[in-house]
Amino acid sequence: MELWIATSNRGKLNEFKLLFEKELPQIKILSLADFPTYSSPPENGQSFLDNARIKARSLKAMKPNTWVMAEDSGLEVEGLGNLPGIHSARYAGPKAADSENVAKLLKMIQIRSSANRAAQFQCCMVVFNPQGEEMIFNGVLKGQIAKTTAGQHGFGYDPVFIPENETKTLAELGMGYKNKHSHRASATAKFIEKLKASL
Ligand code: IMP
C-alpha cells in the first residue's frame, strides 16, 4: 500500500517515516520529492484545517486512487496574540530559513516585552482514503518559548520550544522525544489507529 504525503519539508517527512516504519512498515511512504512535476497550491486558507485541506485536495486530484495525507502545523505564542500560527513557515518572509523565523520570534517577544512565553504547536492532518472519503486528525504540544536557542536536532522552532514538564528544548530532547510526544506524533497515532482498523 502507498501513502502519498503532501510535503516537501524534510524535517516533517523524517518524522512521518519513523512513525510509520515503527507501526506499519508495509506502507510505502511517498512525498512531493517523489513527484517533481507537481506544483503545490498556494496555502491561502484562514486556519490550519483550511491549509491542510488545500494541500490534501490538490494532491488527491493528482493521485486519486490511493491514500493521500496533508498536514498543516505551526506555533502559537500567547504573548504574541497566537502568532506566528498559520504563518509559521514564512514568519520572517516568503523564503525565510528556520533560523530567520526563530530570530524574528525572539525579537518580537522582546519588542513586546511580553512575559507570557506560553506557546503550543498545533497539527491538523487531512487524509483521503482511496475511495475519496476525508478524515481529520489533530494534535497539540504545549510548552513555552526559551529565552535563547539550544540544541541541534529537529527543525523549525524546535531550538526555542520547551515542552511542558521539561527543562530542555525539543532540539535538545531529539527525535525520540518528538516521536512520542509531539503534535505531529499525536495526530499521526490517531491516523495509524484508523488505518490499522481499515487494513
Ligand atoms: P507548513 O509546512 O506550512 O505546515 O509549516 C509548518 C511550519 O511550522 C514549519 O515550517 C515550522 O516553522 C513550524 N513547525 C511545525 N511543526 C514544527 C515542529 O515540530 N517543530 C518546529 N517547528 C514546527
Question: Can you offer a commentary on this structure?
Answer:
The protein is an alpha/beta fold and 199 residues long. It has one domain (2-198): Maf protein (Alpha-Beta Complex). The protein has 5 helices and 7 strands. Strands 1, 2, 3, 4, 5, 6 and 7 form a 7-stranded mixed β-sheet that branches. The longest helix has 16 residues, at 183-198. The protein is globular. It starts with a strand and ends with a helix. The relative contact order is 0.16. Bound molecules: inosinic acid. Inosinic acid (IMP) binds at residues 9, 43, 72-75, 88-89, 101, 121, 154-158, 182, 184.
- Name of the CATH class: Alpha Beta
Radius of gyration: 17 Å
| Helix proportion | 25-40%
Give the number of helices: 5
Based on helices, strands and strand pairing, what is the structural class?
alpha/beta
